[in-house]
Amino acid sequence: MSLTREIWDEIAPVYRRVLEHPFVAGLTDGTLPVDAFRRYVVQDALFLADYARALALCAARSPDADTLRMFCRHAAEAIDVERDLHERLMAELDVAPPPEDEPAPMTPTCLAYTSFLLSACSLRERHDALAAILPCYWIYWEVGKELAAAGSPDPRYQAWIDTYAGEEFADAVRGAIEACDAASVDLAAEARASARAHALTAARYEWMFWDSAYRSETWPL
Question: Domain range for residue 128?
């Protein structure tokens, strides 16, 4: 069995919980409060800046030119393509983008997730780094496809769904899956277990990220 198939088997229970979460389910049935979506968009913009850095670290550790180019492209797209989506959504949600020299504060979950990714991609083995970044690709793709089948009555939510259900994003996900499997050739059982553990942690953070926006998470002190 490929490592990514093992990873999906590991994170599938989390993915099912993601689909059941009222934030995600509310995107299609019209019950998601706009304030929750607004909080999510602000935090996701902060997340993607550090996710791009994590992808750049994966690019720097790539064993071949094709993988290097792919992760460099993905890092740039995380900043440019998805930032365009956020800016469009922020305008429609009446959110004023914070000045670059004074960004909005990260929630505890956003800070914990990005810190985990940057640590994994800079300090752990390459297979752990690739396994850590994979759930953000893969879960969003699967969520996008699932929600696209139902559609949304809110055009703002539909724009978000269309981004992650689209073929351009699908190509990026397939590339990340292939890179992770390529890095796992001849891995010992202990190393494969470590990669699965990193993916599971990231998948749990994915659920927590939506949950934090839904319940308006703030710092307790």
Answer: 3-97+104-214
